[in-house]
Recover the amino acids of this structure.
């Protein structure tokens, strides 16, 4: 997928003024945040479970080569054909080759964020093969020619009216008004495709080393359909999705649905180990898994390593005050929200996503809700430091920071400067109580907000004075 | 060098230079053989009661019968109540039950596009989440629990386990190598992709009905 994160400032300003989007974001926010809080509270030992999951993810990463090799040998023993890809182009080409070798004309697809990274649909369609997204949200945005704005709820930016209009036009049927009827119309339209597609493509939430299995977690049942109905199944995944054992998977499943949608478990958890067996009555005759490494090993060797613990639940974006206001598209790539602000620059280069590490208030809501304890604010801070080191900051910002550092590390000068500014501020602000426009580096800051007028005395002055009074 | 070798080499070198943290320790081989259990939530109380409660939470409906021979009557009760057609496709293990006595047409085969009701057994069930565990394999069509609008599942009471970990333990001892598909099903198919409105019957069944059998 093409990266447009460079436009973050401009796009997010536009999104803030988009009333329809604001309404949709408001609705989504309450749904996920409230239901997560409820199911987390039900567990007496949520923190212990969360710590264990974080430890297991760290352990996986520390032995990732061994677990991947173990996974591969067991998958192959079950008849799975394993491929490795080092670039998006390579992964896409493997998919097309499998399709061509099997004379595939139509593919049904269950949601895959790796597929979004590689731009798989466009590539496959470019080779004359039809691809149908089947997750309702993905289907909606595929019909609209858009990209997902959320990793769990891809069409969360669309209103019901948008979907009504879109379906009426694309399905050439009378316009439907309610969510239930719209959902069932999509079911009716997609059902024949499930039955006659030649190949199914899914993602993989996890790869389990103990058994060489892949797992997908869905609510709609489209994932189970995609892994069962067509004669060929291709799962695309990336190296960091590998976990050691079935019991480690059970641990992750206490966290993933709870953190994602506030469910105790998702409706369908489908674990696949190899293709159809001799005695089986259904299932695909061929099963391929493609394991991708683009950017992952670079992150593994970097100070952003902890980001690879991510299990893609979306809790960090659901709880992020910036995401809640600008939505996912503003982030300009596959992963929005705090995890996107780390992964986008980490995978695509900091210079291509310069604003993202700053698109956060560092309030640490994301860090608190992350089921695998990724210290997201710390990672964003590290990226900010990198921006400074790499000279990616504007001159004004760099100089301002230098001046600030000089003053802040010299108590006498700091005291003097703040006193002068507090008094000057009081005079400038006057009786209005607000400074509407600052100069120099402050210009940008007051573009969208006012600065409350300083009261004329600094905190240090008041504190010292109160100490004197107390002593006296 | 192949992509595989390159990737594995990069992982090894990253784990040499990177800030590796591993409080669990031990080798990968150790964990794969011992498969330690991580903390699980407090699940004291009656396992069946919990399973029933969780089924309800997941929007499955539930009935209880004494023995396998009572299943057709329970199915008939359910289909009548929901005004569904009195015909179904089922797994072969149910073909010898007295369906005609309950006026139910049955066919023992996998489901196709237009079948309305599918009847399956279940390998086991998980009380913690109200989940049915279905394994693919001989005589177990995956389509039966997937394509029809109504899925009825027979669960033996003594096969209700507390957690997913217990289900894995049972499979390790009884099944060995995992079958092609292990399907965990918790209630009917659903989506909330349009304005967060919960709708049942997205692609899979609209209804899941569980029949608990004592013996």
């Amino acid at each position: 997928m093409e990266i447009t994160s460079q436009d973050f400032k401009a796009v997010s300003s536009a999104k803030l003024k988009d009333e329809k989007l604001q309404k949709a974001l408001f609705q989504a926010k309450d749904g996920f945040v409230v239901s997560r809080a409820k199911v987390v509270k039900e567990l007496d030992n949520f923190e212990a479970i969360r710590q264990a999951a974080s430890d297991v993810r760290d352990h996986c990463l520390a032995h990732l080569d061994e677990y991947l090799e173990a996974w591969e040998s067991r998958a192959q023993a079950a008849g799975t054909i394993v491929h490795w890809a080092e670039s998006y182009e390579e992964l896409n080409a493997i998919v097309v080759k499998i399709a061509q070798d099997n004379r595939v004309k139509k593919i049904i697809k269950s949601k895959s964020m790796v597929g979004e990274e590689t731009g798989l649909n466009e590539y496959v369609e470019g080779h004359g093969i039809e691809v149908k997204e089947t997750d309702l949200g993905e289907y909606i945005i595929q019909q609209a020619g858009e990209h997902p704005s959320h990793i769990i709820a891809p069409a969360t930016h669309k209103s019901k009216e948008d979907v009504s209009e879109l379906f009426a036009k694309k399905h050439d049927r009378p316009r439907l008004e309610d969510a239930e009827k719209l959902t069932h119309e999509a079911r009716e339209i997609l059902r024949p495709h499930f039955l006659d597609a030649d190949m199914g493509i899914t993602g993989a939430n996890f790869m389990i080393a103990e058994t060489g299995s892949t797992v997908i977690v869905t609510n709609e049942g489209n994932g189970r359909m995609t892994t069962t109905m067509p004669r060929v199944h291709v799962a695309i995944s990336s190296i960091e999705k590998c976990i050691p054992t079935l019991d480690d998977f059970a641990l992750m499943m206490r966290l993933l649905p709870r953190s994602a949608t506030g469910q105790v478990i998702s409706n369908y958890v489908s674990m696949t180990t190899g293709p159809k067996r001799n005695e089986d009555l259904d299932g695909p005759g061929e099963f391929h898994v493609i394991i991708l490494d683009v950017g992952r090993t670079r992150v593994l060797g970097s100070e952003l390593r902890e980001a690879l613990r991510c299990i893609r639940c979306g809790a960090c974006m659901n709880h992020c005050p910036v995401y809640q206001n600008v939505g996912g598209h503003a982030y300009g790539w596959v992963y929005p929200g705090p995890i996107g602000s780390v992964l986008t620059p980490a995978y695509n280069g900091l210079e291509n996503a310069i604003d993202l590490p700053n698109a956060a208030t560092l309030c640490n809501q994301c860090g608190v809700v992350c089921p695998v304890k990724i210290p997201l604010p710390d990672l964003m801070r590290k990226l900010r430091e990198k921006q400074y080191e790499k000279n990616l900051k504007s001159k004004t910002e760099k100089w301002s920071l230098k001046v600030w550092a000089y003053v802040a590390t010299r108590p006498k000068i700091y005291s003097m400067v703040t006193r002068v500014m507090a008094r000057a501020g009081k005079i400038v602000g006057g009786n209005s109580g607000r400074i509407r426009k600052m100069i120099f580096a402050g210009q940008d800051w007051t573009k969208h907000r006012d600065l409350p007028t300083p009261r004329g005395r600094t905190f240090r002055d008041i504190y010292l004075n109160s100490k004197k009074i107390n002593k006296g | 060098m192949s992509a595989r070798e390159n990737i594995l080499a990069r992982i090894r070198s990253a784990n040499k230079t990177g800030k590796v943290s591993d409080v669990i320790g031990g080798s990968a081989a150790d964990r794969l053989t011992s498969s330690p259990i991580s903390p699980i939530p407090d699940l004291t109380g009656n396992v069946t009661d919990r399973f029933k409660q969780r089924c309800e939470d997941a929007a499955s409906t539930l009935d209880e019968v004494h023995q396998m021979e009572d299943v057709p009557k329970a199915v008939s009760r359910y289909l009548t109540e929901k005004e569904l057609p009195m015909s179904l496709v089922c797994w072969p293990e149910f073909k010898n039950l007295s369906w005609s006595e309950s006026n139910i047409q049955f066919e023992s085969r996998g489901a196709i596009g237009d079948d309305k009701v599918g009847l399956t057994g279940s390998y086991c069930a998980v009380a913690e989440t109200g989940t049915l565990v279905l394994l693919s394999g001989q005589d177990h069509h995956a389509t039966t629990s997937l394509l029809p609008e109504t899925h009825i599942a027979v669960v033996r009471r003594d096969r209700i386990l507390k957690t997913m970990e217990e289900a894995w333990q049972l499979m390790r001892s009884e099944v060995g190598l995992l079958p092609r598909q292990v399907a965990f099903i918790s209630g009917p198919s659903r989506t909330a992709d349009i304005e967060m409105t919960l709708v049942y019957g997205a692609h899979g069944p609209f209804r899941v009905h569980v029949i608990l059998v004592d013996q």
User: Anything to note?
Assistant: Chain B has one domain: 43-213. The radius of gyration of chain B is 21 Å.
